[in-house]
Design a protein that fits this description.
Elements: H1 4-22, H2 25-40, H3 50-74, E1 86-87, H4 103-109, H5 114-125, H6 130-137, H7 141-158, H8 166-181, H9 185-191, E2 192-201, E3 213-214, H10 216-228, E4 235-242, E5 245-252, E6 258-266, E7 269-276
Parallel strand pairs: 2-7
Antiparallel strand pairs: 1-4, 2-3, 4-5, 5-6, 6-7
Helix pairs in contact: 1-2, 1-3, 2-3, 3-5, 3-6, 5-6, 5-7, 6-7, 8-9
């Protein structure tokens, strides 16, 4: 049986690969478990490079998942957003934001083909060589190079304008929160980019905009309307890391309803707001102790 220690050394990386390819916490968890089962069944001396082997295995699993996921997402009610990764906070000395796990970029990746997305993630984010990626997607190394190049061009063209300065991002989020909680329409208009985009994922389970909302005035009204839907007596606002960047979590401690906010910030203004309200996509979060 293959060594447990070899697998555990790669577990965090494997999950990171799986989440970026699938955009789903649940699928990433399942993919890691399936990879472990396959690893466990191997003779101990069969694999020379555990890191490369395990990366290939989990990437194949996720690549296959993408096909069925695309069918499900085509029938999805309203915008489809990835399941958020929420944490209490990042390292104090962290200066830049992790674009590769940001909800805005993951949303752009949804527009790629499964092969393009897999090639881009493996090569550009995890530096996997093209011959190894070719084994995952069943193409030649040269074909994979072209896939990654096409994906890279599209990501560059469609990825949101964003700041890599953590302080700038945090200040914008705090200004947004103050304005929303204070019912300050002028304050909201000042912190929102004139062309800001609001995407809300309710999945047909809770009320949410069925199409993206464009423009600072419309987005400001949506933000205020959402906040008014919570009871001030039972609502808790938590400042949390959402996919590697400062974000917000609103929780109704009485009813259990929750909403996660992720932001893109550029030149001090909020350019995109991704709002995940579908309770199925927040099931993995320990909301009472978050």
């Amino acid at each position: 049986m293959a060594e447990l220690t070899d697998f555990e050394q790669q577990r965090d990386r494997l999950w990171a690969v799986a989440y970026r390819i699938t955009g789903s916490v649940a699928d990433a968890d399942d993919a890691v478990q399936e990879t472990w089962l396959r690893w466990q069944a191997l003779p101990a001396d069969e694999v020379i490079d555990p890191r490369a082997y395990l990366t290939t295995v989990i990437s194949r699993i996720c690549y296959d998942l993408l096909g069925s996921a695309r069918v499900r997402r085509e029938a999805y009610v309203g915008p489809w957003l990835p399941e958020p990764v929420v944490a209490a906070g990042g390292p104090e000395d962290r200066v830049t934001l992790d674009e590769s796990v940001g909800l805005a970029l993951l949303t752009v990746l949804e527009r790629l083909t499964p092969a393009e997305r897999t090639a881009f993630i493996l090569h550009d984010v995890f530096s996997v060589p093209f011959p190894e990626i070719a084994e995952v997607v069943g193409r030649t190394p040269e074909s994979v190079r072209q896939l990654a190049s096409r994906a890279r061009k599209r990501v560059r063209a469609e990825a949101p304008r964003r700041s890599v300065d953590r302080g700038e991002h945090q200040r914008a989020v705090e200004a947004f929160l103050r304005a929303v909680m204070g019912g300050d329409m002028d304050g909201l208009l000042q912190i929102l980019d004139p062309e800001v985009v609001w995407r809300s994922d309710g999945g047909g389970k809770v009320t949410a905009a069925r199409v993206p909302v464009l423009g600072n005035e419309k987005v400001a009204r949506f933000a205020q309307r959402l906040a008014r839907g919570f009871d001030p007596a039972t609502m808790v606002v938590r400042r949390r890391e959402v996919n590697g960047a400062p974000g917000l979590v609103l929780v109704d401690t009485a009813g259990g309803q929750a909403v996660v906010f992720a932001f893109s910030v550029h030149q001090g203004l909020i350019t995109e707001i991704d709002v995940i309200a579908n309770p199925d996509k927040l099931r993995h979060l320990d909301l009472p102790n978050l």
